[in-house]
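ARCHIVE CARD
Drawer: 12
Card no.: 0347
Subject: one protein chain, sequence and derived structure
Cross-reference: see card 0346
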Amino acid sequence: MNAPARTPDRPYRVPPEPRRWPAIALAVAVHIGLLAFLFIGVNWQNNEPVAVEAEVWDMKTQAAAPPPPPPQEVEAPPPEPAPKVVETPPPPPPPPRPVVEEPPQPKAPDIALEREKKRAEQKKLLAEQRAEEKRLEQEREEKELKAQKKAQLLAEKKEKELAEKKEQAKAEAKEEARAKALAEKKLEEKKLEEKKLEEKKLEEKRLAEKQKGEKLAKAKAEAAEQAKLDKLRDAEMKRMLAGVGGTGEAAKSTAPKSDPGYIAAISAKVKSATSYSGSTDVAGNPAAEFRIEQLPSGEIMNVKLVKSSGVGTFDDAVEKGIIKASPLPKKKDGTVVRTVTIAFKMKDIN
């Protein structure tokens, strides 16, 4: 019987068990033929015993001696002296004929016993044949059962392998989907980061442009302020030149004098006018030193950074505070120091 074809999309199926009726009919026919052969063979060998005839001889009766052969005619020889007559002994008697004994006739009970023995042997042979056939049938059934079991195990193994392959395919698809999602997430994060970087660059560009504009505006304001201060300075110089030869009070008012209270008052006003929003968490206490030129009225004419603190934002904040603090305080006698150099420390501002 041909096994069903297996395809990749259809699992292996166990072939149906063959029918037993043809095998049983064949076994019965073989048994009938064997019985007929044995029956014919037994009848063919049961022939009637052959009759044996035998002659009985009496050992006491002796057979007569055979007659002597006739004398041959011999030509008369020449006369010789009369020979001595020797008597010839008689021939010995023939040996007795052996007695053949007739085999005893088998008795009726012995024939029946022989037949029963043959029948018993036939029954035994038939039983052995049946047992052998039964054993062969059992072996065939066991082989078929083993084959079915093997086929079932093979089918189960195939189904298990197919299920494992499906599970593996699902896991691989899941892993691939997860990797794809992760890659998309990373791509989104990269795009977002690039967008943030672009925005940061634009913000920095805008801030730089703003700072550039502020610097330009500051430069313009400083130029205007400088022009104003130059104008005031020129007017003051003219006024001072006009007063030369007088009492000399103007010269005294501009002379530098060491007055710690005066310097402290200027520093306090500049600090109160300075607004620094940067971080002060730096090593040490950096200081920015400025040289301030002012009019006798205390108005600031010029501010110049003599020594930087190393932090540009702090220097700018202090410079703006100095300009904002104009006019600066005067001494107790109402005079001012035309040029003052003051250092402002970062951690002392706030």
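Annotation on reverse: Confidence is low (pLDDT under 50) at residues 243-257. The first strand starts at residue 287 and ends at 294.
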